[in-house]
Amino acid sequence: MKKELALDKFIRNLIDKYLFEIAVGLLILISVFIRFKLAPNTELSPDYDFYYREWVEFYRQNGIIKGLSNAPGDYYVPFNVIYALSSLFPCEAWVPLSIVPGICELISAFFIYKIFYLLTGKKRCSVFIGVMTLYLPFVIFDGALWKQVDAVYTCFLVISIYKLLKQQYRASIVWYSVAFAFKLQSILFLPLYLIIYITGGFNGPADEEKELSERSAFSILEFLWIPVVYLIAGLPEVLAKHGLRATYFAYLEQTGELDSEGYGMVSFFPNIYNWGFDDHYKLLSTAAVMVLAAVLVVIAVFCYRFRERIDRNLVLYLAIWTSWTCVILLPGMHERYDYAMLILLTPFAIMVRKKIMPFMVVANICSLIVYGITLFGAKIIDISYISVFYVASYLFVTADIIGLLNGGNERSEA
């Protein structure tokens, strides 16, 4: 038998001891390489040439202070600061605008690992599932190809959910407030916090049980962090003399664009408004918001009625379900607005609630088809048909979580 070389022996020992760590490292590097290859393409993005590149060029021509005083676009201040800082780099605008979401995707992956390690105690599976979120098509396409920034506010949302599951309510609300200051779509998760407040917290694991008074230490005053952080986030433009109204009313102006720019009831998002209701925004938009409010009230009452059954797993399930409810019923939803919901639903179905895996897969396929339509022009299926499958998946998940809350005997773990 031939003697094994010392180098080969060293490599084999390294593989024996650290195969999992090596695999994780390689998977992360491959995900970075995929983004590196896709990022230079700016032709597929429907927004890069008309908005993002122009905004960066605006700051290059005017400087950061003058640029912020006349901030272009309709984003709130934190994103305008990102575009302003991107103008400082001597490269094409797509470079920093691809790096920023890429970094936030990695942060989200890390905290998804922490969330599912907290829920399941399975460290390696949780690490793997966190890394796998880097390979979800909508995650890759949104940042690398579209140059969108959904990954930025989502990473703060994921951190806030992790802190919430740890029952660190103040920290959770503060991180949520940061997410809200970055993007209005964070409001899709606000119903979760209201429900948790109304129910007086939730049940922790048996080895972490606390007195009811301690578990209920989620004061309504914590919600004041949302306007406080929002006001602080606007200071760069206020100090640059952009004006109080122009700065702090940014979100109000964004909601007005749904009508003024002709988006209608829905914009390439597979919800119920694709079934013949899209062109009736003025007639239906207010009613749609009121219907959502009524549904959320019913959800809150239902959760309060069965509050003793809410544990960590159900808190995360409620986060997914309530935000999914919002995108199904709210008017003016765009193709990317379920980004945060899907990035939580996917690992949750795999790690915790395997029963809903088929519906998670359908939701991801619907998302992939929609990105194919908006980025690649691949109109192989009409959006109204996609909506049937997407809404059906939501309804099955709705039935499942209602059964969990109402049944009591079936645990929320797989």
From TrEMBL:
It comes from the Bacteria. The chain crosses the membrane at residues 18-36, 93-113, 125-146, 173-196, 217-235, 283-302, 314-330, 359-377, 383-405. Keywords: Membrane, Transmembrane, Transmembrane helix. This is Mannosyltransferase related to Gpi18.
